[in-house]
Amino acid sequence: MQTRQTVGRGKVYDTILDTIGDTPCVRVNNIAPAGVEMYVKAEYFNPASSVKDRLAISIIEEAEKSGALKPGEIVVEATSGNTGVGLAMVCAAKGYPLIVTMPDSASIERRRLMRFFGAKVILTPRTEKGIGAYKKAKELVDANGWFLAAQFETSANALVHENTTAREILADFDGKSLDYWVSGYGTGGTLTGVARVLRQSSPGTRIVLSEPDIAQLIGSGDGQDRSEDGAPAVSHTAFEPHPIQGWTPDFIPLVLQEAIDHKMFDEVVPVSGADGIHWSRELASKEGILTGISGGATFAAAMQVAERADAGAVILCMLPDTGERYLSTPLFETIGEDMDEEETRLSLSTPGFHM
Ligand code: PMP
To answer: Is the pTM of this model over 0.70?
Structure first.
């Protein structure tokens, strides 16, 4: 084996924002079933460690272009986490103040991260669900004339995945036939944007959508009541609180509706939170791939596909964010801080430096 070397990127970057996107697709070697090729697209390589960095830069730049956002104007968004972190990073780099509203059930690391980037975080009661946080954001915007990022409705969402995520997938799988592409949805931006391109340029790729087994909004077949601006009017009847943060809000977002209306996915695979946690840990401990609960859940759906796929099938699974964003959540619940029995035994097996 040759000694490992690197050659640099051959350029320097003018801003952290230019490092968003171009995330790697990585082969899964040890836990994939025999006879299929499984890959993950590791969105945690983005500068603020999630897929939502793409959305954040798109919302801000499209609004700058259209004139909807003026220099230095306050940006407001309702977000349970990664969109807030992405927007906080983009707003810090571009000099916009940011106010984020979120249910108080979102993980502590997300709130503190946003504040670390300089954003203001306003908590809303978890009993009011995502819609409560959304209504608070809307109230603040209506009262003050600030700019609402509107991730669930804005055309800048699917657009960025069409122009970046999807193009990267086509380029990286050039010469290989991509048989399955697997994704969950939060806003539906990843799904709708990537599916627009795959349906056109890779029609043989089956698009698999996953959602929580206890909140099958799509699987229920029921529609969503909306107000005039496309925002949800009420919670969807099939929604139940689930542990897969960032997935399936308590309504069907407008951004996702396009994919439903135009049949831009071929099947829906329900996944449990426990399976998401299981596969996130398997990816970390057997592959060295560190992703959150939604990444584990998407991979759980991809494993179901892999078990029944034809020999030689090529499967790509989205991993939306990093596992490090979940240290205070059920993902790390059974991971101790203190030494366990085996660690203590190892420590006592040589004479010095005992606790
Ligand atoms: N997983 C996590 C952890 C997320 O934060 C998000 C975005 N809300 C998603 C998955 C889904 O991405 P999208 O909004 O593009 O559907």
So the answer is: yes
